[in-house]
Amino acid sequence: MVVEMKQENGGAAVAAAGEKQQQQQAPPQLVMSVKRGEATLVAPAEATPRGGQYYLSNLDQNIAVIVQTVYCYKPPPSPSSGNGDDDDVVGVLRDALARVLVHYHPLAGRLGISPEMKLTVELTGEGAVFVEADAACDLADVGDLTKPDPAALGQLVYSVPGAKHILEMPPMTAQVTRFRCGGFALGLAMNHCMFDGIGAMEFVNSWAETARGVAELTVPPFLDRSVLKARDPPVHTFPHHEFAEIPDVSDTAALYGAQELRYRSFCFDPDRLERVRALALALADGGRRFTTFEALSGLVWRARTAALGLAPEQRTKLLFAVDGRRRFAPPLPRGYFGNGIVLTNAVATAGELLSAPVFRAAGLVQDAVRMVTDEYMRSAVDYFEATRARPSLASTLLITTWSRLEFHGADFGWGEPVMSGPVTLPEKEVILFLAHGKERKSINVLLGLPATAMDAFQELMDDI
Q1: Which residue in 105, 192, 240, 436 is the catalytic one?
Q2: What is the top-level taxon of the source organism (predicted)?
């Protein structure tokens, strides 16, 4: 989901032929051994409001999932250079976290339930969870984060032992893992209800600025989420099919249950993206023009539908988030701390998608984007207020886009991360779009599918 959030991965761009070969061969399984120290709490460095509840908007309620990301850094300069060693890395990150939490003090609280039976933040001020760890390998052994690897990369992120639901998990945890080579990784587990991808990146960059000694944050957080309160009385003027439960007449649940879930990454460089747009434009009616996102989303929605072998009468739903910050009237304040994204949707039968060229699916995506106006977003807020419904992922594909997030800007004083990315996809229905390469002109498409479906999806991608 939107949380969306992961999480951009770096690495040099590779030739198209090399990309296909890399996609067809299963990467070697990473064996990683990480020894964690005891978890500690990092409280705000100064007094912050305590004792009350911090309001979470209705847009925050729908995406309360944990998003795990990892940022990997080369070894810091030697102590003789004046920048400190790896022990200083831990101290600098911990100290900067305490200071940035003064601005982002709700992250030092704990999730609770309000009298209205909604998620809220109890302003306990107890702090974020912070863990030191050591890996028995070099940073180079991690490889390129182009594919989620929960078993290995999950060791670089701290999860509270025994936590059964989100109320038992803190809003954020941070783990700093030192590698034998002197490099280190920062692993974050953050609840999507606290912020969307843009807000999360602003927080990480603010933390990085604080670590570098910047006097004032470039984008200080705007904490008042009441600007997105529901209208009284609530008025929903759209049907909001994003909440609809679609019957699984194709029995894909059995397919997922019977086969191993395989993750793969597909790189679309600028030339390949242009071919995708050309496919979407071919035979398009009414002279429609599609953005890269619309064309690529239509392509993968259609290809996934085919790969899963959905019955022609199977209705399938596409969900994706649209940034509403500038679409609200008035726009949300700069630095808005919270979810400013709204889910929009398109629905079609598998037969409708597969019997028409890509432009049919791309057109449905475009219609869904254009539907997101101020009134649509206010209607979505009010719909939850009146129904407490949550988006259903039954027979659904959820596309999360991180391709515009500046994850490479997280410089804590030792340079940009050499790579960063997601630990895993939050749900089996999620596909993630990430920027790829230094110039960020390519897009990596990350997804997981049952083994036979992934092989079918691979063949469809090889033809592009």
Answers
A1: 192
A2: Eukaryota
Whether domain 241-463 has CATH 3.30.559.10: yes
Which residue do the tokens 């064309």 mark? 295
How does pLDDT run across 233-272, given as a tens digit for each residue? 999 999 999 999 999 999 999 999 999 999 999 999 999 9
Q: Is 192 a catalytic residue?
A: yes
> What single string gives the DSSP state of each residue in 218-282?
SS--B--GGGGPPPSS----S--GGG-----TT-HHHHHHHS-EEEEEEEE-HHHHHHHHHHHHT
Q: What is the pTM of this model?
A: 0.88
Torsion angles phi and psi, residue 288, rounded to 5: -65, 145
Q: Where are the domains of the chain?
A: 34-77+84-225, 241-463
The half-sphere exposure of 305 on its side-chain side, counting CA atoms within 13 A, is 28
User: What residue type is assigned to position 45 of the chain?
Assistant: A
- How high is the pLDDT of residue 286? 62
Tens digits of per-residue pLDDT, 384-442? 999 999 889 999 999 999 877 766 679 999 999 998 888 888 889 999 999 876 667 89
Residues 6+ apart with CB under 8 A from 194: 60, 106, 107, 121, 171, 172, 200, 337, 338
Sequence-ordered strand ranges (E) for 285-416: 315-323, 341-349, 396-401
Could you say which of 85, 86, 411, 455 is catalytic?
411
Q: Which residues pair with 111 in a beta bridge?
A: 121
